[in-house]
Amino acid sequence: MTDTPSRKEQTHDRIVRTASRAIRRKGYGGIGVADIMKEAGLTHGGFYAHFKSKTDLLAEVADSTGADSLSRLGRIAAAAPDGQSLAAIVDAYLSDRHVEAPETGCPVAALGSELSRQEAPVRRAATRRMKEVIDLIGRQLPGWADGEDRRKALSVYCSLVGALTIARAVDDPALSKAVRDAARMTILDQVT
């Protein structure tokens, strides 16, 4: 017995991966099902063998991109020296590499302002993953195990997402870096 995914599962995953990158690159309204399927090398008609609607696809994309982001941040925290996990997360999140790669980076920074206009299943999946990232950040803070610091974890998360969003939005590289440097200093000063 093998755990090899079927051809249909492989195709389904390809659609989700393609949609994930395309949506973070162009926004929810910037790409349609036909565009996603074409980019995946598939026909538009094949979409409905995998999803009932675009909303179903978007909800799955929100879930999978959130899971990827959580996993990436978890690996960064686990690899950091003792007492440095939050700084490692902050540095990676606010890095030049992350700024330059919206299609593979944090989905909230790429799509956050558009999420409020999405249907409930998409918002529900994104919200669940955001809560998990906030909890991951919180576990890096002293006092989290005692039920403290939820406010700090929320503040760190909002600062990271906001700083990355602004850093990507501006057309001035020096300002982009200054925004990220200021956020990093503020975050790390707040939690020490």
What does this structure look like?
- There is one protein chain.
- The N and C termini lie far apart (52 Å).
- This protein is 70% helix and 0% strand.
- It is mainly α.
- The model has no long low-confidence stretch (mean pLDDT 93).
- The protein has a single domain, classed as Orthogonal Bundle (Tetracycline Repressor, domain 2).
- It is built from nine helices and no strands.
Tell me the total number of β-strands. 0
Q: For the terminal residues, how far apart are their CA atoms? A: 52 Å
| Annotated CATH topology | Tetracycline Repressor, domain 2
Please summarize the sheet with the most strands. Answer: none
Q: Which structural class best describes the helix and strand composition?
A: mainly alpha
Q: Please state the overall shape, judged from the principal axes of the Cα atoms.
A: globular
Annotated CATH homologous superfamily: Tetracycline Repressor, domain 2
The amount of beta strand, in percent, is under 5%
CATH hierarchy: architecture: Orthogonal Bundle
Give the H and E element order.
Answer: HHHHHHHHH
Runs in which pLDDT lies below 50 for 5 or more consecutive residues are none
Tell me the number of structural domains.
1
Average pLDDT works out at 93
- Name the helicity range: 55-70%
Number of H/I helices: 9
Radius of gyration: 18 Å
CATH class: Mainly Alpha
